[in-house]
Amino acid sequence: MKRKSHAALRKAVQAIWGLLTNAHLSGFVKGTIYQGPLKRFCVPGMNCYSCPGALGACPIGAMQALFNGRRRRFAFSVVGYLAAVGLLAGRFVCGWLCLFGLLQELLYKIPTPKLKVPEKADRVLRLLKYGVLLILVFALPFFWRGEGGAGEPFFCKYLCPVGTLEAGAPLVLLRGELRAAVGLLFRWKLLWLALILFSSVFVYRPFCKYLCPLGAFYSLFQKISLLRLSLDGEKCVSCGKCERTCPMDVRVTADPNSAECIRCGACVRSCPSGALHFTGGRWKLDGGASPSRKKPE
Fold it and tell me: Which fold has domain 227-284?
């Protein structure tokens, strides 16, 4: 019961955060994009700038907008902001604040046979998101220049399913002039979005596991972030329940602060001996001293 209430709370937080950051409801009626002062601030999770309801900017989009300008500026402000979020909480944003992550989780709850990606293939596929971050978000927008002297937001333009779901599809439906201009690129993005959503029915959060550059960026700070998962080796009974419960297939007892952990807390709630705790620095989040990090023998 405790585990179910925790999961419900997490999904509620994801949904509320998604609604709050996309609360420009008149945009969905008029087919317009909010351009007010809040657009100067990046939303920590995946959130398309061009969504009719979006009140903030997507950090990946903002980063590429600075990279691909004619002056080729490095996006110190956006990278610094994301680094601060990562240092504070690691991939907590992925587990608690990402609306697209919530959508994938809800699709996974559809009662169908689930697919288990072979471990070796899974390890290789999880590296793809770092390639997406390095090549499509950093390298190509920064170094490649078109005929006009400006670059392109490669990830947003060719690979981001969130932009298609939140911005592309709604705007095309709401504005007739855009429907007339739909071409091959938009059709590709729709097909790509459909593929991601369809695969989410059978694999838990496939975009987050294998392709999300924002998750890849935050994961770089997992082992040094203020919010951490601590294992008390003296309490651990080696039952393996935490690892069987983990939806991201993290080997919790071997690497509690794995780059793949989204800080969802499922392992903490399932531990029968109380060996797992979230801590902030040297302190438990309930105010006690941090437990020993000794691993079980």
Answer: Alpha-Beta Plaits (3.30.70)
Element (H, E) at 227: strand 227-231
DSSP state of 224: T
Instruction: Give the Cα-Cα-Cα angle 121, 164, 207 (nearest 5 degrees).
Output: 20
Query: What are the start-end ranges of the H helices in the chain?
Result: 2-21, 25-30, 59-67, 76-89, 92-96, 99-108, 119-125, 128-131, 140-143, 154, 161-163, 169-174, 176-180, 184-200, 206-210, 213-219, 241-245, 266-270
> pLDDT for 98-144, tens place per residue?
999 999 999 999 999 999 999 999 999 999 999 999 999 988 888 88
Cα–Cα dist 15/11, whole Å = 6
DSSP for 40-97 reads GSB-SS---TT-TT-SSB-HHHHHHHHHTSTT----HHHHHHHHHHHHHHTTHHHHHT
Sketch the domain layout of the chain as residue ranges. 2-219, 227-284
